[in-house]
Write a structure and sequence with these properties.
This protein has 717 residues and is α+β, with helices and mostly antiparallel strands. The protein contains 22 helices and 25 strands. It has a 6-stranded mixed β-sheet with strand order 17-21-22-20-19-18. The longest helix is centred in the middle third of the chain and has 25 residues.
């Protein structure tokens, strides 16, 4: 039966990508003066794993680059080469090349051959600084049955084939391999393609010859010596264990990883040695001494199999390790989204049942109401459990920045220390990719405009090394992500001057928060010169737009000469929303709770009209723009006098606004439905949901409504 290899190749792609990420992460934190041996070993193992898998599946281009990279890492960890900064640079670039080759095989595209050739040349340059690779001769006995192409691919994964002699039924196959790997390691790999007993290896390395067994004795797994033939019936051993104690220490006592080396004990009587229950162990258990009394009263030790209860205990004690290795499964995002949609529909149905149950007599329908209450609790728990499946640690986003910061700092001639705080903070999977671009813009902005050059920092009494901090934490029902630097901070006067140059309406009485928000205007930049990093005024407006599209907002705090902090505030998920339902006429709307500050019923004298600003409301001495929701959506209201209705104070993008509505209905947790997917984009509306009575309610886009109040957004019909 043919084996479908596609599933194994897919696993290899995933694991190789993880190995590359591990390599980059460790390389970025390696100390040049005293590199940690465990880190070096981890990088080597990652490269070795990629090379082995690539050779197995025939990705020779991937194996070729990884092989020379692995050899260099091996020499560094063995102290044959000193680790240098230029080596780390090339190793990081090698990771980029390997990722490109990996993607080409996975997606069916074409790899950047020039980049691969260039990086190979650089790696070979480092390799030439060390001794030449030794040549190993591999001889496969005449008549052996094997896949010649598979053998060649396996060997090329270890180095360069400098010679190859074709064999056959009456002549040997002979391969000459230039490699820094050990002959034993090459032999172990070939054992999967050729019967090990037919392979002999030698040359520059110590000669390794596979054990010559007689017609299948041992079946190519373990060695068996002549005395062992009498240990068990026929001396077979069935290829899983050796018949006597000395055989266990074959090949210098390695035991091939299955046995614990034991000290030879005095030979037991033949009858006892042949008794399986008296100490055979089948090669899997370590014999324990059994004390016997000899005729003279002395104690004699004898190897014995552990008691059955002990064997069961050993098996039981090893279980946690096996379980720990299988605590997660790979599931496509589409399946999780489908499950989330079904749970969302269940929440809507449950809300409808609750709405209907409110009209029932609690005395007559006590059991039904109790069941509905239990359903509500179970539905919420199910909803939270499914939501948690979509939650991922923000380290998936943060892990991209050590490399970015390192490269940009080198390009800008700055010294930067990156601090990552709260990497285990979880957020919705839908935010992971969407956050990457906004955070990248903010980080590049801090590095280019915020943190000064080392000489400038020293002149200001600062450390020559600037600090950039990425921090994530939960606050209420939101996740907050901060990008903070200890650089020059924002210059209020320069920002105002630049705004006047671009004919933006500003005045000296603006608060700092209002001034800082000007940098998010399209094309706005205070950079003295344009660089390939930033300075064109493109990006910050996109940052705000992207954050708003995720239902979040961005805030800035800055102190000139001290530093700046950009704070992104996002809901925990895009799928479920905590909101306050309000009524305007016969319509129901929802306002996300994150934007609501307070609600109040104004007095008649608190609402005024100001020239150029329209209606405003006096809230404890602060005049806020007042917008009537029924005017925006052209809905006939039930209440026309402000002192008869309610006013909700909202805050978005650092600005406050008062919204006049008919009434507050209550707080709800609702399932968000995308309006654009099902209808079209509606100005002032962020989405829709289905209420418990089956009616559709619009979710308000508070940020856009704030713009409407300021007259900077297009009119809404």
């Amino acid at each position: 039966m043919a084996i479908d290899m596609s599933q194994f190749i897919a696993v290899f792609f995933d694991e190789a990508a993880e190995h590359l990420a591990t390599m980059e992460s460790i390389l970025l934190k390696l100390s040049l003066d005293d590199p940690d041996s465990e880190d070096l070993n981890a990088i080597f193992r990652a490269a070795h794993s990629i090379k082995g898998g690539a050779a197995t599946f025939g990705f020779t281009d991937l194996a070729a680059v990884t092989h020379i990279l692995e050899n260099l890492l091996d020499r560094i960890r063995k102290n044959e080469l000193d680790l240098r900064a230029d080596m780390i640079d090339v190793f990081l670039r090698s990771g980029d090349v390997l990722q490109n080759i990996l993607s080409s095989h996975r997606d069916g595209g074409s790899a950047d051959l020039e980049a691969a050739k260039e990086i190979t040349t650089l790696l070979e340059k480092f390799a030439n600084e060390s001794s030449a690779e030794p040549c190993i001769q591999i001889i496969i006995a005449a008549g052996a049955s094997f896949d010649e192409e598979a053998v060649k691919r396996a060997l090329m994964g270890y180095g360069t084939l400098s010679g190859c002699v074709q064999g056959g039924e009456h002549s040997n196959w002979i391969y000459e391999l230039l490699t820094a790997d050990s002959a034993q390691e090459v032999l172990d790999t070939l054992a999967f393609a050729v019967e090990p007993t037919r392979i002999t290896m030698g040359g520059g390395a110590a000669e390794v010859v596979s054990d010559k067994l007689s017609d299948g004795d041992g079946y190519g797994f373990f060695t068996e010596d002549e005395p062992a033939a009498s240990a068990m019936e026929g001396g077979d051993g069935y290829g899983f264990f050796t018949a006597d104690a000395p055989a266990v220490t074959a090949q210098d006592g390695e035991g091939y990883g299955f046995f614990t080396e034991i000290t030879p004990q005095p030979a037991a009587p033949p009858a006892e040695a042949a008794t399986v229950t008296d100490g055979a162990g089948y090669g899997f258990f370590e014999p324990r001494p059994k004390v016997l009394s000899a005729a003279d009263g002395t104690k004699v030790a004898k190897a014995e199999v552990p008691e059955l209860s002990k064997v069961k205990a050993a098996a039981t004690s090893s279980k946690p390790t096996a379980v720990a290795a299988d605590t997660s499964i790979r599931v496509s995002v589409e399946k999780v989204d489908q499950l989330l949609n079904l749970v969302g529909e269940l929440v809507i149905t449950q809300s409808m049942l609750v709405q209907t149950a409110l009209n029932l007599d609690p005395v007559i329908h006590e059991n039904m109401l109790s069941g509905v209450g239990q359903l509500e609790r179970n539905t919420r728990e199910l909803q939270e459990s499914v939501m948690s499946i979509r939650m991922m640690p923000i380290s998936f986003v943060f892990s991209r920045f050590p490399r970015l910061v390192r490269d940009l700092a080198g390009k800008l001639n700055k010294k930067i220390e990156l601090k990552l705080i709260g990497e285990s903070t979880e957020l919705d999977k839908g935010f992971i990719e969407k956050l990457s671009d906004p955070l990248t813009h903010l980080v590049r902005n801090s590095l280019d405009h915020g943190i000064e050059l080392p000489d400038e920092r020293v002149a200001k009494g600062k450390s020559p090394t600037g600090t950039l901090t990425l921090r994530a934490f939960h606050q209420g029902g939101n996740i907050v992500i901060e990008v903070a630097d200890d650089g020059a901070g924002l210059n209020r006067e320069r920002i105002l001057a630049k705004a006047r140059e671009r004919d933006i309406a500003v005045h000296d009485g603006m608060t700092d928060g209002e001034v800082w928000l000007l940098i998010f205007e399209a094309g706005f930049s205070t950079a003295a010169q344009v660089t390939d990093v930033s300075g064109r005024g493109v990006g910050m407006d996109v940052v705000r737009r992207n954050i708003q599209s995720m239902g979040g907002r961005i805030e800035i705090s800055s102190m000139y000469g001290i530093g700046s902090t950009m704070s992104i505030r996002l809901p925990l998920t895009l799928a479920i929303l905590d909101g306050m339902s309000i009524s305007v006429g016969d319509e129901i709307y929802l306002i996300p709770l994150a934007f609501i500050i307070e609600s109040l019923q104004p007095r008649h004298d608190e609402v005024k009209t100001m020239a150029g600003k329209g209606r405003v409301i006096n809230v404890r001495g602060e005049y806020l723009p007042l917008i009537a929701l029924h005017e925006i959506f052209n809905v006939p209201p039930k209440v026309t006098e402000f002192h008869e209705g309610l006013v909700i104070i909202l805050e978005a993008e650092g600005e406050k606004v008062a919204m006049f509505v008919d009434d507050l209905l209550g707080q709800h947790q609702v399932v968000v439905k995308n309006l654009e997917t099902n209808y079209r984009k509606v100005p002032g509306v962020a989405g829709a949901t289905i209420m418990g009575d089956g009616h559709v309610a619009f979710i308000l886009d508070v940020a856009q409504l704030v713009h409407i109040s300021q007259g900077v957004s297009r009119a809404i019909a």
